[in-house]
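Reviewers of the previous submission asked for a worked example of the structure-prediction workflow described in the proposal, so we include one complete record here. The input consisted solely of the amino acid sequence. No template or homolog information was supplied to the procedure at any stage.
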Amino acid sequence: MANEQITVDDAHDRIIDQLKEKFPLFVDVGDYGILTVKEGETRERLTVPAAILSFDSFEPDRERSNPGTGQKIISVRWELRVMLDTKDPSHDRAIRRLAADVALWIDGNRFGRGFEARFIRSEEDQFDPRLIRFNPWLIEFQQSYLLGESVWDGEGPVPTEVYGSYVPEIGAAHEEDYERIEEAESLVKP
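From that input alone, the workflow returned the following structure tokens.
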């Protein structure tokens, strides 16, 4: 369900787990720690094919309305770097083909939680000096999530009849002005 709460850790894990399942060719798949053996030490070798996911930034999602649950909708910008063996003579085409396949898989995917992901762009990435020798391709995408707990716990009675009125005939003093919504055509004023 799109309005289920998700944690930052859960979002990472779901994307990584589904990436491994959908693209079993990746030998190394992970996030920030994939290049670190011990704190402060960098791995000598990354086993390719590989994919590294990072949570780049987040901001309020202003395109979606308040869900009325007390939760905040955030839009997360993700970066996924994919790498293949650069010694392969068909590397240049193969890495672009892989990046395109992964981008198509990402676009519209919910990874089990959140709203549908939206592919933003993909390009060759020479930014991280630890990865330059792998000639990585960067895939950027966005996905929105609800953060925080819902004020609705699912307990208590569920209304079976809904009544409505319009301003200024609202509140306890105007209780007789309310009509059942299914019969309330007069609530829509021309």
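The chain has two helices and seven strands. We consider this example representative of the routine output the project will generate in years two and three.
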